[in-house]
Amino acid sequence: MMEWIQWLGSHFIGMFDAGGKTFMGLVTGIIPTLVVLLTFTHFIIKIVGEERVNRIIQFAAKYTLLRYTLMPILSVLLLTNPMAYTFGRFLPEKQKPAFYDSAVSFVHPVTSLFPYANAGELFVYIGIANGIKQLHLPVAGLAVRYFLVGIVVILIRGIVTEAITKYLANRMETKSQL
Predict the structure, then answer these.
(1) pLDDT in tens, 73-124
(2) Cβ(126)–Cβ(103) below 8 Å
(3) How is residue 131 annotated by DSSP?
(4) Number of helices (H) and strands (E), helices first, in the chain?
(5) What is the pTM of this model?
(6) Residue 87 and residue 100: Cα distance in Å, rounded?
(7) What are phi and psi of 113, to 5 degrees?
(8) Measured between alpha carbons, how far is 39 from 157 in angstroms, rounded to an integer?
(9) Nearest-5° angle of CA 26, CA 32, CA 33?
């Protein structure tokens, strides 16, 4: 019985020691990079001007292709997760569900090239990237492909969700007229 308690105590503390080592690795590794990337993004917004950025988003909102590619990409890069969804304010109500679907689908692939945009998903990507490194394969290629496939996926999801929303709205309108 006593051996079991000793084993439990040492492994319990060992779990926290391992967590502390991981945390220190982040503090001396990725966290400074994330802070610099985020600072750079805000610097670019200040140089370009918030009003110009808003006009670009309003222009993109008019066109399906841009609405479900450029808008989610800029929203996630400029505002990060979860503030990115506020770009939906530039859209009519009937397009907001599709924009949200596109934006929420892009917060995962964006971490490959812009880890500051969704730090919560960074651990998933780092795990995948470490597996790729152990296979002695280039991580940069994975990051670019992950990002590009993400753009294709958000476009498809936006178009499909907009069509579904339109169908359901028409159906509800028809029912209310009966």
Answers:
(1) 988 988 888 788 888 888 888 999 999 999 999 998 888 888 888 877 777 8
(2) no
(3) H
(4) 8, 0
(5) 0.68
(6) 9
(7) -110, -25
(8) 31
(9) 100
